[in-house]
């Protein structure tokens, strides 16, 4: 079951897992003795993709006769490596591991779970508790429910356990007694000694009270490198922690700006803060509010986290000031759960000088009232202190859960959303019929055509109609069931006189989150805005229906997507789409403004994109040719949007239909990724129509997707590679009128690239206008995207990085966009109170330090986004 599920709609993996994480331990820098890194159920040692060795767990079992080893039946494409996830140890009765540890040292326990079918066992029958030295780490735990709710393929739990005194550590797996047929399992266990880095934390709201963290065991809820990149375990300072990027947790549209220490400033640990606390990577990046004091005064830089109620949490803030140098330059208040945790925080005052890390711990109790399963963290300038700059800063954040008085750390499993479960069930039905009844024919036809050099576009079209027809015979709902995966925009909070939904049909099923963020339009408003769906207002047609240009609020242009009554999109898909879109927001995604569900109409209202699709500016057009810089900037914008879909949202979202008609341009030429065709070119070979059923368009399809029928975000990377060549060569991805070897742009461009003759096929309008280094970087990147195997393709983040680099290479030195950090400071922080006019579109490059683009640790061009809002 899981396997099918994962194949066809493994679109969303919780952001914590998607970084292709592995927990590698850099042995040479490991200063703490006796770590245990065990691959459960493995007969011999194995190595993960970072080269970290995982040993067999067998000799640490206290009784080898009450457990057995098993191998997962299915390898989810999002697993970072087979070790330790593909083998497991299954426990059908209480069983323990015993380790000898230092009696005086705390240690991390990390548990790895991959809920998959193991021999004949159903993953949903795994329900168990885990105890360690008298602490309950997990209870009534279902790894499959948790994975489903978080849309993760695998789960890692980290705990910090107080010193054992006896020198023994026993970890017990205990199958649930409440669930008939329950079993326990584990894929990986790590026991890593650690220094005691916890002390007292002041209790928020009680100025004179503190919580003694020292004597408690903890669960790590979250660990973020704020404003910085993912830090894998082997880049941590010896404690093999993983630090994630913070952007998925930012609340609201105010993202602030990120920055990075410039290469002249050295960050140095102090006596109080050593590398145990956090690695230098964490302290050398930060998020702050932005250069505009007026804006900063009016918003809070806010993050929101999911926690379990009825526990005490310690929130650890990591700071390091590398821009300001004096006291009272940047002073701010810290709020935790809307209460003041710290007034007038001044990092320089705490640290003594610039470039010195500090951290602060605050404790808060999450009671059991409504909304207490969320933990809010917010920063706001301390205006009353009259600091020189109205701003705030944060470099890192960790949240730890403390054991309660019964030595318990276990919370309830997260609950998968009902809507998601329903959508999954439908997708699964479709997947079954697709995989089992039609797959042979479909795979052969499609594989034959797409896998090799594309023979003829007409044949492709015919094949698809055939497949589609066959599918429709089975079950009328199945074709549409993938529609909900189509994520093409985001919502933003309503503006003006919006009617926040509460009465519509859809809203009764929508979560309060979606309903609150998404505006509900009445049908009469929509009819009025589109002149009663006048044909003269149609700007696009697709399998789903028509797209109209509309006006709302007496003048704001919008795109109105009206579902065809005969369209296969059902009410549930429609609601699911709203639900999902309302969770996504990004400057480079087309935004959903609202919806209308009335009289059987299903209408979505999006931002209007004045400049249409990218394709219509590339070829077969009367429009003026885009300059190389414009093209590059559009590619960078689209890459940002996709990167956000892959990693930035709470879920990983695979677009599945990346192409130049799904990259739209607004009036300021900002690229926005979308999924509805605003300007389709005729019904002859209606690719978009096809694509609503079997996602993906010919010419852009990842060959590996067909070979293995496994969808990963690397399929989008492949399609994006085709887009890059399309932009460079200004020709369609498929052009059946060309000689056979040239029909497919992907194949032809790769052929020319390999033979070093790519320059011959680039857009004549560009010839002589591209800096050769810039061109090389661009084509190398596109080539890597088109690698045959997903694993060889870069991530969207790497693609973005390389394109930004290419843009820098293409820049004239005189253009002067590259400024030093001090100049940035002078220019963007004028005397306090002054309002600065930075062009919304401008992006300042703070510092560049470019080494090896393949090395994730490399410091690279730090882009300051548009203003903080
Ligand atoms: C080991 O487990 C088996 C099966 O649960 C049990 O019969 C046996 O008594 C156990 N041995 C010890 C030494 O606890
Ligand atoms: C297994 O452990 C649990 C929790 O400690 C306990 O409640 C249960 O009785 C144990 N089962 C057996 C068969 O010992
Ligand atoms: C254990 O979890 C299941 C669902 O996973 C739930 O139905 C049940 O109520 C839970 N039991 C307890 C005692 O929490
Ligand atoms: C799950 O456990 C129940 C109770 O023992 C059993 O009837 C059922 O067959 C199990 N499911 C699978 C797929 O093994
Ligand atoms: C800092 O930048 C300069 C040039 O801007 C470079 O020569 C130097 O190697 C860099 N230092 C480090 C430590 O990377
Ligand atoms: C904090 O305030 C926000 C609104 O600003 C609210 O939605 C949230 O529930 C509050 N959180 C707590 C824990 O009170
Ligand atoms: C910032 O958050 C605090 C605490 O929730 C709240 O009192 C304050 O009004 C917020 N300020 C702004 C500008 O939103
Ligand atoms: C956690 O457990 C320890 C050991 O029982 C206890 O001393 C401590 O008070 C507990 N922590 C909290 C916050 O209750």
UniProtKB/TrEMBL annotation:
Tell me which InterPro entries the record gives: ANXUR1/2-like (IPR045272), Kinase-like_dom_sf (IPR011009), Malectin-like_Carb-bd_dom (IPR024788), Prot_kinase_dom (IPR000719), Protein_kinase_ATP_BS (IPR017441), Ser-Thr/Tyr_kinase_cat_dom (IPR001245), Ser/Thr_kinase_AS (IPR008271)
List of residues binding ATP: 561
Main location (coarse class): membrane
Please give the start and end residues of each transmembrane region: 445-467
Q: Name one Pfam family in it.
A: Malectin_like
User: Which PROSITE patterns does the entry mention?
Assistant: PROTEIN_KINASE_ATP, PROTEIN_KINASE_DOM, PROTEIN_KINASE_ST
Q: What is its EC number?
A: 2.7.11.1
Q: Superkingdom of the source?
A: Eukaryota
Q: Which UniProt keywords apply?
A: ATP-binding, Cell membrane, Fertilization, Glycoprotein, Kinase, Membrane, Nucleotide-binding, Serine/threonine-protein kinase, Signal, Transferase, Transmembrane, Transmembrane helix
Q: Which SMART domains match?
A: S_TKc (SM00220)
What is the name listed in the Swiss-Prot or TrEMBL entry for this protein?
Answer: non-specific serine/threonine protein kinase
Q: Which organism is it from?
A: Acer saccharum (Sugar maple)
